[in-house]
Amino acid sequence: MRVDGERIEREASALAFPRYPGTEGDTRAIELVAGWLREAGLEVSCEEFTYDIGPAFRALRLLLLGTGLLVGVAGILAQPQPQIAASCLALALLAGGTLLVWSPWLERLYSREGSTRTANVVGRTGPRRPRLSLIFVAHHDSKSQNLTLPYRSGLTILTLLAGAGLAALLIVGLAMGRVGGPPWLGPLLGGLAAASLVALSTLQNGNRSPGGVDNAGSVGILMELARILPGELPADVEAIFLSTGAEEDHMVGAMRWLDRHASLLAGRPTYALNLDGAGIPGKALLLERYGVGKSFSPFLSKMARRAAERLEIPLRGTPLPPALGVDAIPFVHRGIPCITFASGSLGPALLAIHSAEDHAENLDRDALERVARLVAATALDLTR
Question: What one-character DSSP code corresponds to residue 335?
Fold first, then answer.
């Protein structure tokens, strides 16, 4: 199957402008994507929705600040009151764990209607009563942040390392009857973790990122798949090409679409193939785990790896970093197997995500083409 990498790159470049949900750029992106899907000959709909991200952000800030306070107190009390320190740290870990787990109940925070208006764009092809449904997903919105990906990830890792160090200090101390080491070690570890959590609580979203890597490249692949796959899929297979809105606001668009359509997919096998961060120079990637050791779909991972081996495409599996989210998570929470395809390695393109430097020039045509071929091959294997 021939994939046109030049066309993918061209359409990704056309989409690479700031498009935070609810802005003029977002409206323009929705119109572009809908037009491309119509040109591909699909039945297209734009499903509008509104939401209010305020409650989730307020809950997140309170959680971060409260967790930071508990960790800081645990560090200060590590030597004079190790039992109380251990209790404080346990409470902090229990509270902070909600940031790492992405539990389904947290999605209630996003059910509220609000002033932000955007849309999911959907293109469909196939029979009305299919034996199998394949959903291809890529979000079209972008965002900038005051704490870009390197700072956000670095602060998260620092929190985890300092918290783990403090926990080890307390566990060993309680087992031995006293906390050893220099008197400043506990306060230092607790202070580092607390300061990182306070810094993370200042996180704010903006509309300065062109979103080349995140996620125009993936939308370009989605449009290419919408052109080439309908003619290759069996006649009894339904293909849904879903370009979600508001992924950058904690995956609200995917939640809204699933709440509206998940029941209609019941009664037949359904698989979702998500694209996020595709086009970064480097190997093709599979995001296989999220939260604390949760697996997206071992079955889809196996299918993608088989396809990659047959196509001789280097493929590496990786977990989703802590506290980060992708549209695959709401699908898995609703029982629909989903895996996320990406690409790349540590470098300027990755570090530019969620910043004004995430230009289309960061995309690599070969990486875009490899991921497109891999997703197409995985999809065709699922139909056999």
Answer: T
Q: Which domain holds residue 354?
A: 5-52+119-146+207-382
Residue after which a domain boundary falls, among 137, 171, 200: 200
Residue-wise pLDDT for 100-150, tens only, equals 778 888 888 888 999 999 999 999 999 989 999 999 999 999 999 999 888
Beta strands in the chain (DSSP E): 43-51, 116-125, 132-138, 144-145, 205-206, 237-243, 270-275, 284-290, 294-295, 315-319, 338-343
Could you give phi then psi for residue 45, rounded to 5 degrees? -140, 145
Query: The whole model's pTM is what?
Result: 0.94
Pairing mode of beta strands 132-138, 237-243: parallel
**Kind plus residue range of the DSSP H or E element containing 317:** strand 315-319
For position 293, what pLDDT does the model report? 81
Let me know how long the chain is: 384
Rounded-to-integer distance, Cα 226 and Cα 206, Å: 30
**Residue where one domain finishes, among candidates 200, 216, 239:** 200
Task: State how many domains the chain has.
Answer: 2
**d(Cα 25, Cα 275) in Å, to the nearest integer?**
21
Residue 132 shares a structural domain with residue 157 = no
Distance of alpha carbon 134 from alpha carbon 353, whole angstroms: 28
| One domain, residues 155 and 169 | yes
Residue type, 289: R
Query: Residue 98 contacts by C-beta under 8 Å, 6 or more apart in sequence?
Result: 63, 106
Q: In this structure, are 264 and 315 located in the same domain?
A: yes
Across the range 8-14, mean pLDDT stands at: 98
Residue 110 lies in a domain: no
Residues 84-95: what's their mean pLDDT? 92
Residue 260, number of CB atoms within 10 A of its CB: 12
Cα 314 to Cα 318: distance, rounded to the nearest angstrom: 13
Please say whether the beta carbons of 144 and 63 come within 8 A. Answer: no
What's the count of helices (H) and strands (E) in the chain, helices before strands? 12, 11
